[in-house]
Structures are given as structure tokens and as C-alpha cells.
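call fold(seq) -> C-alpha cells
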Amino acid sequence: MDVTKAVAKTSFRINWISMNPSDEQLMTAYAEGDMQAFDQLYARHKGRILGYLYHKLHNRDDAEEVFQATFAKLHAARDRYHADTPFLPWIFTIARNALTDHFRRNQTYRKNLLSYGEALLNAAAAESPNRSVGSTLFELSTLTPHQREALKLRYDQDFSFAEIAARLQTSKVNARQMVSRAIRQLRSVLGTSKGP
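ret:
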């Protein structure tokens, strides 16, 4: 009996898509687990949403990053979608919120980057007035990409060590060690003490 229901449901989905359903019907079907409904929604609106994001960001990579965040948020919110809500304004609200999150993250990152840069240059000038900015930046570039990413996630995006570990596909202990080693390395480059 369960097999009959599964076959009926599958054929229903095939008929569903051939009917040219509305976005709202597709979203409702997707919320119920119909991945073909999602595929059709994605195909219908990918260009429009990506174009909107590119128009706002003027950068293809950033637009694609926010686009991915938009559909990740859509996926996370699919159970809360109501069929009486027009789909297009709903997805564009999600896209606009993802865009706002992106701007906030980048604004914080730029602010921190500027303050870190100023602090590094000031510390380098104070420690060794004859030392060039280029040599200081070269020493900072000795951090591994994982160390730089771990620092960015920890201090720019306020990730926990567990979140850093998940993002970098490592253990929580290793994520903590990466951050700690990067800080020690930066302190040695700057010649600063541990502080308070």
C-alpha cells in the first residue's frame, strides 16, 4: 500500500509540473518536500534575483555569494511559507535581507581591517622606525590561509569555535589552536605583549 502511495505521489508531481503551476503552488509543494517544485522555482527566478543582486553590488562574486545565501534562507524558511503570501515579494524580501547582512558583514570587516591596518602600521613605526610598511605586511602574510580565515570568522563575524570548526572542516580544538597560534604570531610580528 505504501508503494502505491509513493507511485501516485510521484506521478502527481510529474503532472503538477506539466500543469505550469503558480509560484505559490510550487513553493507550497517545495515546503512539502517536492524537489522538482524547487527546481522549477529556481529556474524561473534565478536570473531575476541574481540580476537584482548584481545591480546592487556591482560585483559578480559578491552577487553570487548573496544569491546562495538567499536560497539557503529560502530553504530554511520553507516550512514557514504560507500559500496566501505572494512568492515573488517574499523571495525578494529574503534577497534584500541577505543583501543587508552582506553589507553589514563587509562594513564590519572593512572597519576592522582599517583599524587593524592602522594599528599594525602604528605598532611597526613605533617598534622600528626604520622598518618599511612592506616588510611588516610581508611578515603578516606569513599567516596561513586557514589562520587568516579563522581570525576573520572569530573576530569579524563573531563565530564560535564550533562554528569555525564546521566552516573550516576541522575539530573545535583545532579551530581554537589556529586562532591562538595566529594571535601569537601576530603579537610576535608586532612585538606586543599579551596585554590585559
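The domain at 104-190 is CATH 1.10.10.10 (Arc Repressor Mutant, subunit A).
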